[in-house]
Amino acid sequence: MTTLVFLEHHGDELLKGSLGVLAKAVTLGDGEVAGVVIGSGVRSLADEAGKFGASKLYVADDPQLEAPLPQPRVDVLAQLVRDKGIDTVLFGNSVLAADVAAGLAARLDAGLNWDLSDLAQEDGKLVGKRPALQDSVYVDVGWTSEPRIALFRSGSFDPNATGSSAEVEDVPVALEDFSVSARMVDQAHEESEGPSIEDAPVIVAGGRGLGGPENFTLVEELAKALGGAVGATRAVVDAGWYPYSTQVGQTGKTVSPKLYIACGISGAIQHKVGMQSSGVIVAINKDSNAPIFEFSDLGVVGDVHEVVPKLTELVKQRKGS
Amino acid sequence: MKIAVCIKQVPEGNGRIDPGTKRLDRSGEGALNAFDANAVEEALRLKDATGEGEVVLLSMGPAKAQDALRKALAMGADRAVLVSDETAAGSDLVATSYALAKALERESADLILFGQQAGDSDGAVLWAAVADRLRLPVVSQAAEVTHSGGKLTVKRQTEFGYDVIEAPLPAVVAVSDAINEPRYPSLKGIMGAKSKPQETVSLSDLGVEGERAGEQGSRTEVYALSDPPARADSKKIEDDGSAAQAILDFLAEKRLV
User: What residue numbers bound the domain in which B147 lies?
Assistant: First the structure.
């Protein structure tokens, strides 16, 4: 098996999600695992990526690849897959990666399985696990031909810095005309403190039960005390209380941190699908009938305005001691 | 401007997978995929803004998917094309994008719109595959679309904030559900929809070879279904002033603080 992992970056950082997929690929332990970094001025990122267990790092470094647009990346990957006889291409999900994976599937007439939470070798076959229909059923999926393409849910795997080093190889960049016809003219990024929601081991999320945007400080302070990130429900994002980049749920991000604390969140199915695979779920909500309690490990029927600040204080005391 | 909107009929409610065929059970009531209503709405707005043009709906599915198309016609679209063929059943991304691209080639629209995901499969991938087959530029997660001088300007939502992307027409755009509030069909719209053209085409009408459709044309398969892993026993407590301490103790026990 020759596996290629698409290593996405934002600014000068590799995304943990794609490094996690790389770690998973390495544990399958069958054949060569290579990574590919595509962008402009990304040579040092390729060196960095080499520490995460790949035996080979391909780098496509070209000013035309600067903007995070999918189609030029499809061109690079399609050529790489053909030239190197790659049979499996893996992606960690993102807005960009989903478009790249689907474009590549069409280009190569290759099967794409998406929203996978795991991958395993079973009886010599590669089998993907896909939670479907609001995660009410798990589906084992596979591929009938090569190359195989898979897109994983964010947060499915942790990166593993093995400290290895990989041979870095430059790959040629030849782009189709239609691939460069869309052009990035501006980027407005919300800079947030602390870890991003895809990467955070702990997420503290707020919903309508907070009562108003000003009360998000309660959530922010608890997240800070726990070294985590802040998440939000669709309802509060739509109401303009918090940025879209923090939205957890069907139309936002799917996350699976080790700990998810839901504050004033009812647990509508739209939100549930985005966070139910978290390790431990704690919910605080005034309404004892809120659906969130059906899938929480610890549910507290209480007022978030009282419980959350107290908990923040207790966490701080414990960490201080 | 001629705008094609790709829509899907999805099962009403939560849906189920047929354990026999391992495919989504499409025998029950169907509904217009809610996310596609945003794409229809955006098409109508863009048409209104230019004051001329046509909005064509395109779908692939069983004959009763005409109901979903009729609902979108009632919103104000001009006509509908349904690709319906028994050999297309069980098509995955590779097969679906191929047939859909063939149907879209026949229309030569200036703009092709998709909704942000399918409510049943949670797929959010079809547009990029279709765009690649048509060799057209693609922009997804569009939160705002403006059109002037044969060019689109799209504000795209990403994990990191907003991107502004320009693309020449023709182009493929998948809209976010934050882009608009879809209109409800008026009574006049509902009555009018009944007399709007609804065409059904087969795969051979489109020149899609049998081996490129359905399971034969697909590159993925389903092996087995299983129940999701159950969450271990959960605890629920009422706050009597000590809940914060109880949470801390719980987190400490799980080694999370």
Answer: 2-212
